[in-house]
Amino acid sequence: MPGSRAGGRRNGAGRPTVTTTSEPLVVEFHVAAPPAHAFEVWTTRIATWWPQSHTISGDPASITMAPAVGGRVVETTHDATTYDWGEVATWAPPTRLGLRLRLFIDRDETSEVDIGFAADDAGTRIRLEQAGLDRLGPAGTPRRARVGAAWVSITTHFVVACEAGWAAQT
C-alpha cells in the first residue's frame, strides 16, 4: 500500500500485527509574487479562486477566514446558510498558515493543513502539507488520493489568481 508500512511482528496469538502509517500529503508549487501577496490572496480572497466544485454548496456567496489562531473558516451561501470548514491553527503572516480542516468530512476526521510561503528570487515557493488522513483507517488511502488530486486543482486556480492580482499591482 503506498505511503504505508506493514510490520512483521507477531502478536501474542501468533498472527501478524500490521502497523499502518501514512506520510503527510505534500503539494509544492510556485507563484511569481512575493510571500505577503500570496499569503493575503490565500487568506482574504479565497472565494475569488477556490473552485466552486470544491465547496460544500457549489455556489458560495463568500468564503472567509478569521485572521487569528482559532479563527473560523466558513463558507456562506447566497441564502446565508453557513458551512464550517474548520479553523486556523497557525497564523504567522506572511510565512505560515496552519488549518484544521473538515471540509467534506465529519468533525472527528479533521485533518491538519500546514502551508508555508517562502521567498525566492522569482517569487514564492509554497509547500502545502496535509496530515491526519491516516486517522481515517482503511478509508484514508483512497481519500488521500482524491484529496491530492483536489489540491492540484485548487492550487492551480490559486496560482492564476495570485499572479494575476500581483501583475495588476505592479
Mean pLDDT: 86
Terminal Cα span:
47 Å
Instruction: Give the ordered list of helices and strands.
Output: EHHEEEEEEH
Helix run count: 3
Globular, elongated, flat, extended or rod-shaped: what is the shape?
Answer: globular
Q: How many beta strands in the DSSP annotation?
A: 7
Question: Helix/strand/pairing class, anyone?
Answer: alpha+beta
Strands side by side in the biggest sheet: 1-7-6-5-4-3-2
**Uncertain stretches of 5 or more adjacent residues:** 1-21
Task: Classify the helix fraction into a percent range.
Answer: 25-40%
Strand percent estimate: 25-35%
Q: What profile does the largest beta sheet have?
A: 7 strands, antiparallel
- As a whole number of angstroms, the C-alpha radius of gyration is 18 Å
Secondary structure: elements and pairs:
Blueprint: E1 25-31, H1 35-44, H2 46-49, E2 60-65, E3 72-77, E4 82-92, E5 96-101, E6 111-120, E7 123-131, H3 140-169
Notable features of this structure?
170 residues, alpha+beta, 7-stranded antiparallel beta sheet
Describe the structure concisely.
The protein is α+β, with helices and mostly antiparallel strands. The protein is 26% helix and 32% strand. A hairpin with a 4-residue loop joins β3 and β4.
Give a written overview of the molecule:
The N and C termini lie far apart (47 Å). A 7-stranded antiparallel β-sheet has the order 1-7-6-5-4-3-2, with helices on one face. It has helices spanning 35-44, 46-49, 140-169, and strands at residues 25-31, 60-65, 72-77, 82-92, 96-101, 111-120, 123-131. Helix 1 (35-44) crosses helix 3. The model is unreliable at 1-21 (pLDDT under 50). The chain contains 3 helices and 7 strands; from the N terminus they run E-H-H-E-E-E-E-E-E-H. Helix content is 26%, strand content 32%.
